[in-house]
């Protein structure tokens, strides 16, 4: 298994990935998280880990939410669209997104349902805010889940 992890992980982004599309670099590392279900105000505390992979042309994460969900996301830069192709995988499900910058946010739009979005906001060296959003019929965004992350 050691060889698998050595082949997968990268120490840094690839030089061919343009700086203006390097959306996820600040997320690389480990984070302590508070994941809040806004329908019940129930919160789960745990961790989220991000790493460069595939020679630095992709970012993978592992989110750990015991009793709720363990998942992994692979984000691959697409030079043809200047966006990121994203796949989130957890038991029995794969969700696909396209990630683009919108102002100071990274917005991931669900390929199968454009009303479903994941948003990384308020990204700094030691903190970020993530939301699982549904766009309502009137155009307003409702955050179904909020996640608050502090660097571990």
Structure described in brief:
The chain is mainly beta and 152 residues long. Helix content is 5%, strand content 60%.
Descriptive account of the structure:
The chain is mainly beta. It has one helix and eleven strands; from the N terminus they run H-E-E-E-E-E-E-E-E-E-E-E. It has a ten-stranded antiparallel beta barrel with strand order 2-3-4-5-6-7-8-9-10-11. A hairpin with a 4-residue loop joins strand 3 (42-53) and strand 4 (58-65). The longest helix is centred in the first third of the chain and has 7 residues, at 2-8. It is globular.
Structural class: mainly beta
- Broad shape: globular
C-alpha termini separation: 25 Å
Q: Percent helix among the residues? A: under 10%
- Which H/E pattern describes the elements? HEEEEEEEEEEE
| Residue fraction in strands | over 45%
Q: Give the integer mean of the pLDDT values.
A: 96
Write the layout of secondary structure elements.
Elements: H1 2-8, E1 9-10, E2 29-37, E3 42-53, E4 58-65, E5 69-78, E6 83-90, E7 93-102, E8 105-110, E9 116-121, E10 127-135, E11 141-151
Antiparallel strand pairs: 1-3, 2-3, 2-11, 3-4, 4-5, 5-6, 6-7, 7-8, 8-9, 9-10, 10-11
């Amino acid at each position: 298994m050691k060889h698998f992890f050595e082949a997968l992980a990268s120490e840094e982004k690839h030089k061919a990935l343009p700086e203006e599309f390097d959306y996820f670099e600040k997320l690389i590392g480990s984070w302590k998280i508070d994941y809040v279900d806004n329908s019940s105000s129930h919160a789960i505390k745990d961790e989220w880990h991000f790493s460069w992979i595939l020679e630095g042309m992709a970012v993978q994460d592992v989110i750990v939410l015991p009793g709720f969900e363990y998942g992994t996301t692979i984000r691959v830069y697409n030079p043809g669209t200047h966006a990121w192709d994203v796949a989130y995988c957890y038991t029995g499900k794969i969700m696909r997104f396209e990630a683009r910058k919108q102002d100071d946010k990274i917005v991931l739009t669900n390929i199968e349902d454009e009303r479903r979005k994941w948003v990384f906001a308020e990204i700094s060296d030691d903190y970020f805010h993530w939301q699982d959003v549904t766009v309502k019929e009137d155009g307003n965004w409702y955050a179904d889940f909020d996640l608050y992350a502090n660097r571990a």
